Amino acid sequence: DDQVRLFLSGSNAKLLAKEMATHLTGRHHTIELFPFSFKEYLQIQDFKEDLGTTQGKSLMQHQVEEYLQQGGFPEVIINQEKPLPYLRELYQKIIERDIVSRYHVSYAKTLKEIARTVMSNPGRLLSYGKIRRQFGLGSDHTVKNYLLYLTEAYLLLPLSKFSFKPMEIEKSEKKGYGIDTGMAAAVSLQTNLDRSHLMENLVAVELLRRQSSSDIETYYWKGPDQEEVDFVLRHGRSILQLIQVCSSLENEDTKKREFRALLKASEALRCKNLLVITLREEGEETVNWFGISGTIKCIPLWKWLLK
After folding, report:
1. How many Cβ atoms are within 10 Å of 235's Cβ, its own excluded?
2. Confidence (pLDDT) at 8
3. What is the percent of the chain where pLDDT is above 90?
4. Would you call 152 helix, strand, or coil by DSSP?
């Protein structure tokens, strides 16, 4: 009222975003901060290699693989904290302070097991029924609440299935991604997370980071024959781009699977802008599948992240 501009920042443990909205309805603008992007990571590393040279591209490739494994949390990149112990401790603090203590979770051990399973499987569908049966919970509602807690604490980023009908989007099964690939790798139940899944997680975080400052919405697509496209970019009623992510297209079966899903989604959603993000491969190919044709571009992960 006195023309004062007030900036508030702090831990989720004190006040979650939705609680802030309740207290300051109509009087605030929320800015979501993600871990450092790859561009910001390179700025901190003072990376100035010439990308027109073979050496420059090789060093850039090394940087993106390093970023993929350690993630973008400031303490890891700036203060050079050891990623594994630091990220595991941070993860545990978020679980204990922002979720278990805040919501007085009765089955804390089960919630922790669910959280770790979800973080270990980026890009997998979050089926309430399957999770309920796997962990012996009494109802799907409990599972839904636990996943909501993980989302509100910014550990989990859920992605909805695309539909032109808002109600179907709301009711759709979600795909889950971790807020940071370094954290996902640090707390994973697997010794080494599959590189393709880590890449998909990184692309999801980057798309959601870009979405937070634009009108573009991000979804996944699943066809009637169960083919999937990792990401659908939508603006209003228009589909801007369809994106697949995989580490390599050298395996012919993998290539056919990824291309087939893109072509079928292209026809269903009337979108010709088709992209595959790989670790190293780059090029363009016109393909045909049972009368459906399209031109599919491939781009290395680092180059896409810098666009």
Report:
1. 12
2. 73
3. 79
4. helix
